[in-house]
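Chapter summary example.
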Amino acid sequence: MTTDIKRTLALVVTAGAFIGITGCATTGDLDSTRADLQSQIDRLSADVATAKSDAAAANAKANDAVNIANEANRRSMDTAEKIDRMFKKSMQK
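The structure predicted for these 93 residues follows.
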């Protein structure tokens, strides 16, 4: 056998082994896998959008709670000052 025939035979055997090892993937199999992956990506995208929306709502509620707490603290300090003034005024009489 000549070297070219040996190389060709080796390539054919290698290609046949590769196809046998990897299996035959049809276009339908690839399309099905692609559709499954796209479906998973779409679901994950929807989950991410929901999570972002939930996080934004939680952040807004937390900001509201901080504002309410700050207002309550301000009123408490105002009341404490009023009580202190009333006490000092009552001690002067």
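To summarize the output: The chain is about 90% helix and 0% strand.
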